[in-house]
Amino acid sequence: xxxxxxxxxxxxxxxxxxxxxxxxxxxxxxxxxxxxxxxxxxxxxxxxxxxxxxxxxxxxxxxxxxxxxxxxxxxxxxxxxxxxxxxxxxxxxxxxxxxxxxxxxxxxxxxxxxxxxxxxxxxxxxxxxxxxxxxxxxxxxxxxxxxxxxxxxxxxxxxxxxxxxxxxxxxxxxxxxxxxxxxxxxxxxxxxxxxxxxxxxxxxxxx
Length: 207
What we know:
Distance between the termini: 100 Å
Strand order of the largest sheet: 3-2-1-5-6
Helix content: 10-25%
Number of helices: 1
Number of strands: 9
Strand content: 25-35%
Number of domains: 1
Shape: elongated
Oligomer: single chain
Radius of gyration: 31 Å
Structural class: alpha+beta
């Protein structure tokens, strides 16, 4: 009789764990990928918010244009006034829709008293966005001039044309001071910029 000597050569299952170095490498890769995703997301989100702000400003200028040519009543019985937008370097997070009711000069004159006030609506800019610069192109020729202290854009019936005044010099009272184009430069907290442009012929665009 032949006896077979059978040996169990199978080794028990062994589980190999991760070393500390492998864990650190994987963690580092995940951290880098997450950081890149967050940075790109913030950049994309900031660009979208800046575009939305530019569209809001452009729509506000368009609203002033509609009010100006649609004979919108101001006060109790005043129908013969223009409406405009006022931007000031001193208030980079605010812009104003106004009725040219006090001096009829195409400029925002504020509220001298409780009976005479040109303010229709004031809009605040939030989340660190702001008006970075104000520019205008003179009708008399020459290039665009930036660094303006204020910019006023008025619309008055019957034409949709814009009366653009720079630095508080009325283009309504002094036609030679009218500007061909006004530009409101908006800036995000990251430093990205986008402009809203108003042309003398009434066109409004973002750039």
